[in-house]
Amino acid sequence: MKKILLVAAILVAVLALLALPKGQAGPGKGKPIRWKATFIADDNANLKGMIGNPDYVGGVDGVNINNGSGTCDNGNVYSFLMMGVWAPSYLKFNMDGFLSSGNDDSAPCGFPNTIGLTWPACLQYFLNSYLHPTTGYQYVYLTFTTNYECQVNIPNLMDMPLGSTLPARMCIYFFSHYWDCPQNHTLANYNLYNLMMHAHGYNTDRLLGDLDIYIKRISPTEWIASVDTEFDNPDYPNLPNSNSANFAQDDGIVGQYATCTPSSTKRGKASWTTEYHYPWAKAPLKFQIKFTKY
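Request: output the structure for the sequence above.
Response:
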């Protein structure tokens, strides 16, 4: 059920975000919920927001922020906060010290201007050398989801008691395009990678209960999403090594690309063989975002 929930939560969140008008309407009736997000200043953070203007206002300057909730198969509730960033707003990464990587192969990296670089050096170059979104990657999505295991009935984020904290699942997506290989598909010859970061919050110190990824309600209108992870939750150790397009979403920084080769021709129509590839890496990631509704 875990994998089904994670995929469903992502799809619901993405569809909810994309369905929002520029006016930033929220769920339910009455006055629309409007959101802004603020990166909290921290010299040690390696994901930061706009220099000199840390606020991202939903519906303004290519930013959209939404919250929502859903019901698991067992009747328990999960909820999410999601932030989508388009140009001209940007995110600035400064990630290095990659701890491990895998599924490397001989295919060239598909990120812009990374010819001659191998994984994960090309990943580091892509993240650190550009303001995001960047060319070929029009959108960046950040999602924080509670109750990703569906084991307990966690209320909607809007109903969290003041001062309470919930472990969260963080996802950051850089989508170039959806991989597919029909005949004459315009994207079949592109080498661009999709890039996805997944990390599940857990108690890094079982005695103190220190969470590495969480959401905390600090006022009636403010929530803080905090990330300080090495993508190392021991309950989510497996990274994709399958040719399937439906890969496991365990802790890691995962690239996705496909190779498309003609396999046969029947009645004048070509058939394609699509092979999916998932290089992965792990590295420290730290930042905090305050979400404010108004």
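The longest helix spans residues 2-19.
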